[in-house]
Write a structure and sequence with these properties.
The complex is a heterodimer.
Chain A lengths: L2 E5 L2 E2 L2 E2 L1 H13 L1 E7 L7 H6 L4 E5 L3 H4 L3 H14 L3 E5 L2 H14 L3 E5 L1 E3 L6 E6 L4 E7 L5 E4 L14 E4 L12 E7 L13 E5 L9 H11 L2 E4 L1 H5 L20 E5 L5 H7 L4 E6 L12 E4 L2 H16 L1
Parallel strand pairs in A: 1-4, 1-6, 4-5, 5-12, 6-11, 7-11, 14-15, 14-16, 16-17, 17-18
Antiparallel strand pairs in A: 2-3, 8-9, 9-10
Helix pairs in contact in A: 4-5, 6-9
Chain B lengths: L2 E6 L2 E3 L20 E3 L1 H16 L3 E8 L5 H10 L3 E5 L9 H15 L3 E5 L10 H9 L3 E11 L2 E7 L3 E8 L2 E5 L11 H7 L4 E4 L12 H4 L2 E8 L7 E4 L4 H11 L4
Parallel strand pairs in B: 1-4, 1-6, 4-5, 5-11, 6-10, 7-10
Antiparallel strand pairs in B: 2-3, 7-8, 8-9
The chains are: A alpha/beta, B alpha/beta.
Function (chain B): The electron transfer flavoprotein serves as a specific electron acceptor for other dehydrogenases. It transfers the electrons to the main respiratory chain via ETF-ubiquinone oxidoreductase (ETF dehydrogenase).
GO molecular function (chain B): electron transfer activity
Pfam family, one (chain B): ETF
């Protein structure tokens, strides 16, 4: 059976959920061979084996943290040359897309980004993508070379599928270009304790109607009652009320949770682009004419400062 | 010596229009008004600010696209860029990201550059990979997704805000930079700028000028193939209630019914 390379996104050995989802998709095409780089690479093996990796290629070097993107491209290319896979799958993070793109050029392949589903096909893997603010769904494949495909979070279920997961050291020699862009300082983001926005099952977002940074606690309280991630519209982010890392929309994150709750968000195209593939959509807005109500499964026309706290209280009561 | 900045820009269908695919599954550009991709305005803005700081700098805006793509160049020129290059060729229709990066890279090399600045992504394709592709093709450092950027003494520095960390980056010129929509609001063209733009030079290049064979680009030469495009069915109309004091509780009841509570 053909092997499929899966690039592992991990934090000091803790494998992030989108990589486990990639293993589910990789198993539809062939036998997953994982590539884990940097500090803690070997520690990823048990989780990857449990979800179907037949092999885990690992390599650690200071270059991965000290220089931007290119050292990782060199390593993924080394893995590609060692394995000769049928496809290369990479999580669709900002960095993942850059790594995949540069690899595609080097190996003379086409690239598909931001796939939301992947199936085996007669002429290679067929990727589903969303287009034009998720108003269209396309099916595409790579026409030249070995398919390089980046896949968005929440595109597949995480499935247990125990496999050998044998750890093998990957031999990597860095190119001259690897040290071109130096990372001179790194400030880790403080953890909020809430789920990752793109990975969360429930997202609670606030927009212009929240009317001030200090009022975002209302949104956070609702999110915490549901174990949800917190999002914000571009208007709220541009106003400085909430960090850009939480922005949902065309120039922020695109999310596809089981439940999306929009509070005080009108639903401009820029926002809809990032959330309209959510399974269930709920909105609270003062303006009955707001376009967000065209998308909702349930909407409340009312003052979010009344409705949201009442909803939070009711959820807490019901959860006991 | 003058700092040569090339800003890559894209002419895209207006996101607020009824965007759709043409029969050959390329982006339909005839039925929806086009404009300079909003995210590229940030790239033009940062180029102007970097040029202001430099002793001597020249900004060239570069686009690959059909005849109408000149509008995007005019907008960038009216914001303050010095000159423009329009790569236009019938054989380019249907070119994908890999092919576009080939054309841009050849044009950038032909124009001559110290610094390439791109937006974080286009507002139609949205992949956001062209800056990385350009850095790979040009063989120069990639300093991408910056929310802050500066150039001094032949070194570009910037801040890249990622999901898990914020990083300070540094590279020697020549380099490829991309900037996010957090990098600073783009200026509006002034009346004077709009008038001046009409007199600024716009060069037209075709594939032959760039020594690119027709079969390396276009729909036939594309590295990816779109098999189908289906309009997502409209969401079925939901229940909308007016809050009469119990709106929060009613919503909780709905969520409980959907097993979210």
């Amino acid at each position: 059976m053909a092997e499929v390379l899966v690039y592992v996104d991990h934090v000091d050995g803790a494998v992030r959920k989108p990589t486990l989802e990639l293993l589910t998709l990789a198993r539809r095409i062939g036998e997953p061979v994982a590539v884990a780089l940097g500090s803690g690479a070997e520690a990823t093996a048990p989780a990857l084996a449990e979800h179907g990796a037949v092999k885990v290629l690992t390599h650690d070097a200071a270059e991965y943290a000290d220089y931007l993107v290119v050292p990782k491209v060199d390593a993924l290319q080394a893995a590609y040359e060692a394995v000769s896979p049928a496809a290369v799958l990479v999580p669709s993070s900002a960095e993942g897309k850059e790594i995949a793109a540069r690899l595609a050029i080097r190996i003379g392949s086409g690239i598909i980004t931001d796939a939301t589903d992947l199936e085996a096909g007669d002429e290679g893997p067929v990727a589903t993508q969303s287009a034009f603010a998720a108003s269209f769904t396309t099916k595409s494949r790579v026409a030249k070379g070995t398919p390089v495909i980046t896949v968005k979070p929440n595109s597949a279920a995480v499935e247990a599928a125990p496999a050998a997961g044998a750890v093998e050291a990957l031999a990597v020699s860095f190119s001259e270009k690897a040290t071109g862009t130096k990372v001179t300082a790194r400030t880790p983001r403080e953890s909020t304790g809430r789920p990752e926005l793109t990975e969360a099952a429930i997202v609670v977002s606030g927009g212009r109607g929240v009317n001030g940074a200090e009022n975002f606690s209302i949104i956070e309280n609702l999110a915490d009652s549901l174990g949800a991630a917190v999002g914000a519209s571009r208007a709220a982010v541009d106003a400085g009320w909430y960090p850009h890392t939480n922005q949902v929309g065309q120039t922020g994150k695109s999310v596809s949770p089981q439940l999306y709750i929009a509070s005080g968000i009108s639903g401009a195209i820029q926002h809809r682009a990032g959330m309209q593939t959510s399974k269930t959509i709920v909105a609270i807005n003062k303006d009955a004419e707001a376009p967000i109500f065209d998308l909702v499964d349930y909407g409340v026309v009312g003052d979010l400062f009344e409705v949201v706290p009442q909803l939070t209280e009711e959820i807490k009561t019901r959860k006991g | 010596m003058s700092l040569r900045i090339v800003v890559t820009v894209k002419y895209v269908p207006d996101a607020t229009g009824d965007r759709h695919f043409a029969d050959d599954l390329t982006v339909d550009r005839d039925d929806v008004d086009g404009l300079l991709s909003e995210l590229d305005e940030y790239a033009v803005e940062q180029a102007l600010q970097i040029a202001d700081e430099a002793d001597d700098a020249e900004i060239t805006v570069l686009t690959v696209g059909p005849e109408d793509a000149k509008d995007a160049l005019r907008k960038a020129l009216s914001m303050g860029a010095d000159k423009a290059i329009h790569v236009e060729d019938d054989d380019l229709h249907g070119t994908d990201a890999i092919g576009t990066s080939l054309v841009l890279a050849k044009a950038i090399e032909k124009a001559g550059y110290d610094l390439v600045i791109s937006g974080m992504a286009s507002t139609d394709g949205t992949a956001g990979i062209v800056p990385a592709l350009l850095a790979e093709r040009l063989g120069v450092p990639q300093v991408t997704l910056l929310s802050e950027v500066s150039v001094e003494d032949g070194v570009v520095k910037g801040r890249r805000d990622g999901d898990s960390a914020s990083e300070q980056l540094e590279a020697s010129l020549p380099a490829v930079v991309s900037v996010t929509d957090q990098s600073g609001e783009a200026r509006y063209p002034s009346f004077k700028g709009i008038m001046a733009a009409k007199k600024k030079p716009v060069e037209s290049w075709d594939l032959e000028d760039l020594e690119i064979e027709a079969d390396e680009v276009g729909l036939e030469g594309a590295w990816t193939k779109v098999d189908s495009a289906t309009e997502r069915p409209a969401r079925t109309a939901g229940t909308i209630v007016k809050d009469e004091g119990e709106g929060g509780k009613q919503l909780a009841e709905f969520l409980a019914g959907q097993k979210f509570i």
